[in-house]
Amino acid sequence: MGYLSYFQNQSLLLCSLLVKCSIILVVKVYMEWVNIMHEHILDVIKQTEIDHDIKILYACESGSRAWGFPSKDSDYDVRFIYVHRKDWYLSIDQKRDVIEIPTRDKLSIPVDDLVDMSGWELTKALKLFRKSNPPLLEWLRSNIVYYESFSTAKQMRDFDGTIFLPTSCLYHYLNMAKGNFREYLQGDDVRIKKYFYVLRPVLAARWIKKYHTVPPIGFHELFEDAALPPALHDEITTLLKRKIAGEELNLEPRIDLINSFLQEEMEQLEAYAQSLDFVQEDPTEKLNELFRKTLDEVWN
């Protein structure tokens, strides 16, 4: 029996070691893949500048990877702000102010199928910034920044507290949540992963209601700040772990606890949004100055 116990213990130790080694190997392979994709994205950014004769001021991740719950096959949703040469702006005709790679604009190098790049020309970005555009505000706060050059993005981040419009941002997140809730979470069986596409905007709207500031882009920070009841917190945590682990999370029975929370929150947030009356000082001249300074900084 002594020998049997010894061999059993050794077998358990060996199994434990193999599991640890497997985990280390998986993590190593994943990190190598992330680094390869990061380098590829930088190559695409540099080639975009060359092929389109522009300068990219800022490029970041904006999708589920930045939100903190990517699937194993999630796209790399790269968003960027760019500026043309000065002469491009000296025209009586309005020109195209977006670049979309590879859907509408091609490059002279191959682009990985998982990479979806979309950029806004600087004047377009600043006009939307003036309106406190939530996606743009999220870009500027992304926790995955692929590239940043010159001082424009930093100046925009320093400035966004003065242009932030709680009402328009709150309605943006509320309408996103209501649309996804109506489309994906109404049947007896629902696409479970779509809960995150309602939870995140609801929690972002709650953040705005609580702090009157731009909400963080990451789901985890929004989730922990919400301090939800234990049963609801545990249900969402279980879903989050499953999604991060790579489960497909397709059709499953509706989770009534989460549905009830979302329905009640959206009703309360809509009532709150209707009560807001916020007046903002016009920031146009300051943004015009930022635009002119950027042209000088980049091209002089």
CATH topology grouping of the largest domain: Beta Polymerase, domain 2
Number of strands: 7
- Coarse morphology: globular
The top level CATH class name of the largest domain: Alpha Beta
Main sheet strand line-up: 3-4-2-1-5
Indicate the structural class.
alpha+beta
DSSP summary: helix tally: 11
Name the CATH architecture of the largest domain: 2-Layer Sandwich
Strand content: 5-15%
Report the order of strands and helices.
HEHEEEHHEHHEHHHEHH
- Tell me the span between the first and last alpha carbons: 83 Å
- Unreliable sequence segments: 21-30
Number of domains: 2
Name the average pLDDT.
90
Estimate the helix proportion, in percent.
Answer: 55-70%
Largest sheet: 5 strands, mixed
How many whole angstroms does the radius of gyration measure? 23 Å
Care to give the gist of this entry?
By secondary structure, the protein is of the alpha+beta class. It is built from eleven helices and seven strands.
Molecular structure report:
It is a single chain. The protein is of the alpha+beta class and 300 residues long. The chain has 2 domains: 32-160 and 281-299, Beta Polymerase, domain 2, CATH 3.30.460; 166-275. The chain is 59% helix and 13% strand. It contains 11 helices and 7 strands. The chain has helices at residues 2-52, 64-67, 122-130, 134-140, 152-163, 166-184, 196-211, 219-226, 230-244, 256-275, 284-299; strands at residues 54-61, 76-84, 98-101, 115-121, 145-148, 189-191, 251-253. A 5-stranded mixed β-sheet has the order 3-4-2-1-5. Helix 6 (166-184) runs antiparallel to helix 7 (196-211) and helix 6 packs antiparallel against helix 10. The longest helix has 51 residues, at 2-52.
